[in-house]
């Protein structure tokens, strides 16, 4: 783990979160922008695993989109510990062959998986209590949508149905909340959208797709292709740029 400087005392520590946990210096404040990003990602690929051995909860974000993870790590600042390799494309393909999930899995069809971990912070303890009432992640009943939250949920679990003909549509996978259909749809109706539900996915009309893309604002680095609703060619070009070839490379 890389050394990090405490913003309060300017001393360097290998385990900066432990330094804060002991109360030597206060935890850094997490501003509203970062809280919104973290909440949106928690709706999707982000998680706060059950802590072990009395440790404090931390936030985890695994993805194959390394460009986005670098952007996220930079935006979080001292709160996160950098981008690290989780599994190579070769390991992912081999694991899927062994488990039978994809018996014919080939390395060239996979990308290396990377992860960003946070340092400890009371904010994550509060999120863990509210989002994991019985040990499994569930959207809180008092959850409300904002453009930032939906943006980072969308980059995690959403995609563009570009098809071959006609206009594109946004769809969002909601498998972990598929038993709360009315709740999910009401979240979007409260902010002016009216999706339908099909096969564990929320689907938006073409008109709502255009409005939703505009409402969310500019895309974060690495996911520009999910905003390319005006051109299938531009969508494919941006997506190819976003994901590096499966060949493993050293994190810089």
General description of the model:
- With 252 residues, this protein is α+β, with helices and mostly antiparallel strands.
- 36% of the residues lie in helices and 15% in strands.
- The chain folds into 2 domains: 29-131, Roll (Endonuclease I-creI), CATH 3.10.28.10; 147-242, Homing endonucleases (Endonuclease I-creI), CATH 3.10.28.10.
- A hairpin with a 6-residue loop joins strand 1 and strand 2.
Oligomer: single chain
CATH class of the largest domain: Alpha Beta
Low-confidence stretches: none
Strand content: 5-15%
For this structure, the CATH topology of the largest domain is Endonuclease I-creI
Query: Globular, elongated, flat, extended or rod-shaped: what is the shape?
Result: globular
Total beta strands = 9
Short description:
The protein has 252 residues and is an alpha+beta fold.
What's the layout of helices and strands?
Elements (H helix, E strand, L loop, with lengths): L3 E2 L6 E2 L2 H6 L10 H11 L17 E4 L2 H11 L3 E8 L1 H11 L13 E6 L3 H10 L15 H11 E4 L7 E5 L7 H9 L6 E3 L2 E3 L2 H11 L15 H11 L10
Antiparallel strand pairs: 1-2, 3-5, 4-5, 6-7, 7-9, 8-9
């Amino acid at each position: 783990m890389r050394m990090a400087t405490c913003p309060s005392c300017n001393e360097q520590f290998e385990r900066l979160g432990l330094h804060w946990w002991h109360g030597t210096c206060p935890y850094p404040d997490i501003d509203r922008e970062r809280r919104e990003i973290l909440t949106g990602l928690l709706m999707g690929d982000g998680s706060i695993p059950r802590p072990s051995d009395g440790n404090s909860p931390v936030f985890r974000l695994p993805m194959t989109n390394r460009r986005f993870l670098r952007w996220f790590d930079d935006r979080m600042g001292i709160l996160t510990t950098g981008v690290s390799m989780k599994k190579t494309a070769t390991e992912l393909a081999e694991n899927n062959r062994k488990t039978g999930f994809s018996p014919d899995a080939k390395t060239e069809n996979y990308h290396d998986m990377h992860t960003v971990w946070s340092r400890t912070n009371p904010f994550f303890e509060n999120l863990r209590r509210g989002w994991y009432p019985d040990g499994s992640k569930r959207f809180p009943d008092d959850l409300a949508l904002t453009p930032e939250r939906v943006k980072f949920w969308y980059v995690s679990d959403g995609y563009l149905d570009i098809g071959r003909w006609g206009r594109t549509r946004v769809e969002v996978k909601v498998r972990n909340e598929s038993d709360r259909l009315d709740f999910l749809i009401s979240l979007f109706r409260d902010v002016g959208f009216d999706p339908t539900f099909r096969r564990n996915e929320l689907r938006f009309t073409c008109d709502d797709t255009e409005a939703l893309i505009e409402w969310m604002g500019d895309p974060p680095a690495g996911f520009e292709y999910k905003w390319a609703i005006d051109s299938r060619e531009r969508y494919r070009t941006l997506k190819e740029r976003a994901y590096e070839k499966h060949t493993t490379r050293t994190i810089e």
